[in-house]
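Researcher: Re-running this chain for the archive, since the previous output was lost when a drive failed. Same request as before.
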Amino acid sequence: MEHASQLFTRMSTAQHSLEALRNDVSQQLVSLQAACKGDGPCSEMIRFRELHGRLSTALAALHGELREN
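Model: Regenerated structure tokens:
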């Protein structure tokens, strides 16, 4: 039972780290949107959107694992 508790703690810590990283990416996206305004989407903005999507997917999977356990 103690092992499960430690695993849950590590997964929760990972979730918080991923959320912080996703928030940083979101802030960068806002900055890039302002910088690319009028020129259409620039390559950096596209890359950060993809990264944001991947982080969101990873967070959703981790959240699902935490709820099951």
